[in-house]
Amino acid sequence: MANQVEEFNAYRAKMNDKILADNNKIIKRIFNLDTNAFTAGALDVQTKELLGLVASTVLRCDDCIKYHLESCYNEGLSKEKVVETLSIATLIGGTIVIPHLRRAYEYWDALEAQN
Amino acid sequence: MANQVEEFNAYRAKMNDKILADNNKIIKRIFNLDTNAFTAGALDVQTKELLGLVASTVLRCDDCIKYHLESCYNEGLSKEKVVETLSIATLIGGTIVIPHLRRAYEYWDALEAQN
Amino acid sequence: MANQVEEFNAYRAKMNDKILADNNKIIKRIFNLDTNAFTAGALDVQTKELLGLVASTVLRCDDCIKYHLESCYNEGLSKEKVVETLSIATLIGGTIVIPHLRRAYEYWDALEAQN
Amino acid sequence: MANQVEEFNAYRAKMNDKILADNNKIIKRIFNLDTNAFTAGALDVQTKELLGLVASTVLRCDDCIKYHLESCYNEGLSKEKVVETLSIATLIGGTIVIPHLRRAYEYWDALEAQN
Amino acid sequence: MANQVEEFNAYRAKMNDKILADNNKIIKRIFNLDTNAFTAGALDVQTKELLGLVASTVLRCDDCIKYHLESCYNEGLSKEKVVETLSIATLIGGTIVIPHLRRAYEYWDALEAQN
Amino acid sequence: MANQVEEFNAYRAKMNDKILADNNKIIKRIFNLDTNAFTAGALDVQTKELLGLVASTVLRCDDCIKYHLESCYNEGLSKEKVVETLSIATLIGGTIVIPHLRRAYEYWDALEAQN
């Protein structure tokens, strides 16, 4: 199961490199902003990662969900907090979110299996 | 082709079990509501399944489409009624819906092939 | 309250005339399809209007909701059936749909007040 | 400016009453879940309100944004934390979110003016 | 009718000033990117404005549509080109786009009436 | 890598044939409109393909992105123009678009590898 994590990260890294090598200024700056936005500010990093997770979930973007799940995991957030965040996303976004919830659970298991 | 149906249902069942075992109250109640909402009421079950199908299609959720296609099939709805529902979804949701229409047709064929 | 219905329809008719007078072929044909799609076929008109209503609601388009509410009302659909359709939309689309549900209730009242 | 807050809340309360008086079981339970989901659990109320705010903003629902802004305000969250949440929403959701950001700022001012 | 243009721009300018005065770095940079992205590059300004218009229309953001309609108008794009762009948006985005099409036509008339 | 292009087109063609063989009038006409809308009119074909690409990207439809990337490629549009279009989509649609940007880059490479 850990393979799912490795595969996701390898593809993500490879394509990000291609995109950034292309030197489109707008895209590079958006990637930059993405890094800056999730550093500690008025809100701490854990809260920001949960914000990223809930936004990704209601917008139903599996790759974005995986990315933020992994950051949540690495930041030491408990499964209870992550699931509570996902439950709010499912309530706000509706049952249309449930298939993404399934894949989120699967990815969380893969993150735990990896260590 | 029937395998597509089995695989979908096996994954769905396995992950639903994991999610429900986790005992998050909000998520459990949403799953519960989902079962209740599609039982007969002022509207009959067939009509409700078509409502679920058209909503899933305009929201472009392949897994939700598959789920409601299968319920439609099991409720004995004709392909004509299902396709008419999908045509309304394509008109309301636009050509962006067409890739989901392709996969819906493929899944319907798998449902028919299964029996 | 009936004014809300009249105002909505007057604006809608005036702007549709402008759009169609402009003679863009693609837009004219889409308007045409819109009329055809909701006539009786494999599905009856009432069912189709409920399909239009649920799709409009999960896509959170107030004007589309009003339009289909009015057609439902004119087709003699009971408030129970309409509300059941809206409840399915709220479950599938999530609590983000609730503000549109409020305006749908208000418009239905305006439709009833008008007669 | 405080009027904007009062008007919003008065309309919201009036229509919620109508909706709940109608006794549709699915809708009533969703309203109920909405109350439960934002009480303290693994996450505290402040964090949950920020989750509700960011989800409402990326989904571009003005009424939902207003509702969560008001809860954030009443929970004593600082403007800095609220704006940081809105900035993450704008990054994730894109410039399409900006018109909602304008109205969010206006509503926050109305909340402050009210007291 | 020209008032609609003035009102839109006055509100937009006033709230943008408030937002930018707040000095949130992420938001300021996104506003900056927004200006840069629509200057001439590999694509000319007219093409970029049509891209902005079609994206705003399929995402159903009235304020974004108004903003790009006005830029299109100021860049000297013909109504035929603008309407063709809107027709592609309506086809891709579906009939759910039509209410925004009505308001787009109204705003274009206001732009023409203003001069 | 060229296989990705062939596979995509083969599946697309096969399922389009099935859908059209089914003779649903609404769906057939929408397919027809789709062909007509992208022929030269007030706007040339290249511009229209970029409009299709940006709309598909902000709506986050991978298959639609692939389809328009391929048309852009066949119409002789430079990678610079295509990437500039994708950058506008990422700005307007937000970082939620980035996973689709990765797959768009991969597909463009497959298109180039094919020849």
From TrEMBL, chains A, B, C, D, E, F:
Q: The Carboxymuconolactone decarboxylase-like domain covers which part of the protein?
A: 28-104
Query: SUPFAM superfamilies attached here?
Result: AhpD-like (SSF69118)
Q: Name one GO molecular function term.
A: peroxiredoxin activity
Q: Which organism is this protein's natural source?
A: Kordia algicida OT-1
Pfam families from the entry?
A: CMD
Q: Which InterPro entries match?
A: AhpD-like, CMD-like
Protein name as catalogued: Carboxymuconolactone decarboxylase-like domain-containing protein
